[in-house]
Amino acid sequence: MSYPEAVAAMESRAAAIAAGEADELIWLLEHPPLYTKGASALDRDLLDPARFPVFDTQRGGQFTYHGPGQRVAYVMLDLTKRGRDVKQFVCSLEDWIIQTLGAFNVKGERRKGRVGVWVDRTRSGGALREDKIAAIGVRLKRWVSYHGISLNVEPDLTHFGGITPCGISESGLGVTSLTDLGQLVSMHEADMALKAAFEKVFGPVERVDPPIP
To answer: Contact, 31 vs 158, CB < 8 A?
Structure first.
């Protein structure tokens, strides 16, 4: 799914939800290789501007990568029905990812000051190594969320080299994926785990057609 098409459909659906004209929606998709620039992104963190298309976006966060093998989940939820607590909402998104990873025996963790979900790969007695496996970037309008999360299932991790992912450049921090961690997970299997974990965190769902066929 092209990024501009997806954003237009997502914004339209979020507006319809806010107006009481549509149900909430979680939309699972993949994008061609591209970079997105969040509201707090710094230009210096775009290291290779010519590598892939770059899209400005209204979501929170900094630069991130989307591409094949990465499951993007756009989250259009009505927070007027869910407590209007933004901090708790982001925490619930992290819980969703962490429980999804747990289905594949991967321990996802939060880190203070670093949004997203991380995997500790530090060996006993070795230098710190922590890799980000999932990113979170959301926006709220009229208390309806849009944008969402991205989970690295089996993307080409070298594609992250054109940016400083989420503005984090400290030594020992990087990116990873389920495949990189030795978990050979299909996108369908990842989707089933996402669905099961979502129901535990947010409540029951039903399968519907996507906003763009």
So the answer is: no
Helix (H) or strand (E) holding 90: helix 86-102
Distances (CA, A) of 123 to 95, 114, 130: 25, 21, 10
The answer to whether 91 is a known catalytic residue is: no
The 8-class DSSP code of residue 78 comes to: B
- pTM score, two decimals? 0.94
Of 144, 137, 140, 138, nearest in space to 16 by CA: 144
172, containing H or E segment: none
The three-class DSSP label of residue 45 is helix
**Catalytic member of 41, 135, 144, 166:** 166
Place of tokens 């996802």: 108
* 78/190 Cα distance (integer angstroms): 25
**pLDDT given at position 121:** 92
CA 176 to chain centre: 13
| C-beta atoms surrounding 114 within 10 Å | 15
Contact yes or no for 195/205 (Cβ under 8 A): yes
Distance CA 53, CA 40 (A): 19
pLDDT in tens, 101-136: 999 999 999 998 888 899 999 987 778 889 999 999
Tell me which residues of the chain have a pLDDT lower than 50: none
- CB neighbours (10 Å) of residue 159? 21
Q: Supply the DSSP symbol for 180.
A: T
Q: Where are the beta strands (DSSP E) in the chain?
A: 25-29, 34-37, 54-56, 63-66, 70-76, 109-111, 114-120, 130-141, 144-152, 173-175
